[in-house]
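Exam revision sheet. Question 4 asks you to relate a sequence to its structure. Input first:
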Amino acid sequence: MSRRPAARDRMVLVVDDEPDIRELLELTLTKMGLGVAAVGTLAEARERLRAGRFELCLTDMRLPDGEGLELVRHIAAQGTDLPVAVITAYGSAENAVAALKAGAFDYVSKPVGLEQLRALVKSALSLPDQASAPARDSPLLGESAPLVQARELIAKLARTQAPVHVCGESGSGKELAARLIHGQGARRDRPFVPVNCGAIPESLVESEFFGYRKGAFTGADQDRDGFFQAANGGTLFLDEVADLPLGMQVKLLRAIQEKRVRKVGATQEEPVDVRIVSATHQNLARLVEAGRFRQDLYYRLNVIELKMPPLRECREDIAQIAGSILARIAQTAGTAPAHLSAAALAELSNYDFPGNIRELENVLERATALSAGGEISPDDLMLRPAPAEEAGARGAEGALDVPLPDYLDRVEREAILGALARTQFNRTAAAKLLGITFRTLRYRMQRLGIKEG
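Answer key, structure tokens:
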């Protein structure tokens, strides 16, 4: 069993050609009880790395004989778990993003803020040993190639502080992936704060994210923290980030770049130490092209992309995933788990699951309630074709014997009712299942006269 070195035995390699910066970093790290080896060139850094063991490397981006990125890549090529943080020039977002893409743990900007530096060092030194990572105990089940690749990338992403964008269809497990990145990383003992960006009224977005001061607006009768403050030291998960208004996207970009936020009604900014993980089922690159999402924010959020595969690409895993879901349903109900008949399993394996894992969970919950004798039959599953297939079938039967607007309203109404039924009338989940925003679903329900529950 590996042993973490005592604080006084833990060495940090500092690489910077400016004597004043080296002295500041060495003094700060020494006060934290750490040993320091300080050098001024890439060549000296490589020599030190060959000669000894370090727990962290801090390197300037610009050095006399090359760039800090070369050192980041050199360390990554060695296959060690040494975290590397780079020191970038003030306002150099491009360098910071390049370093994170190259595999850097994190970055700090000049002039170096000591509070931010200490937070970075503590996070890096609290990374779990790779050898002790619980790879086999992951709740992300499946042995198909897409899911194995997703688990492997999650393990790598957990060892950095780089912003991650999780993409994938509705119900494919994007929030689960974000929780795994958080839970396997240095921030695992700090808060994980999930935010559904599409469910916040536009007028409240800024105060919800950044908090507000007493008296900032009518009803603000006391100071209140926002999502950034709640996630301080941990991870802020921005689900359906594409739904953020453009005005808020500007403020979010600044908060990410400066690592500081200003409460509504405040005059001063306050530092926050938050890792950002974002997700959406929409194509952000296309939204950027359409002018609906800021390009600069896209590049800051999408430093590393993690794609969660749809369930239809992992059909061989459906039996294992379904078995786990049925066991969880039984544990909640305090009953013996139901099991799938061979015919029911075959039907599940041939179904495309437009709602992915979330839809599979809903199908199995309903089937468990309908099944007799603990065995789930194909009839209990009540699988129905996708809305597009239903519309095509009706069209083939000559359904356009009514005006086109009425026909389209009927198709839309049935699709919405079907999604609401699958999600037990959870409108947020139903909107994801349909591939639209929460606000769009609410508007269409009102237009079609669909009651809210």
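Marking note for examiners. The first helix runs from residue 19 to 31.
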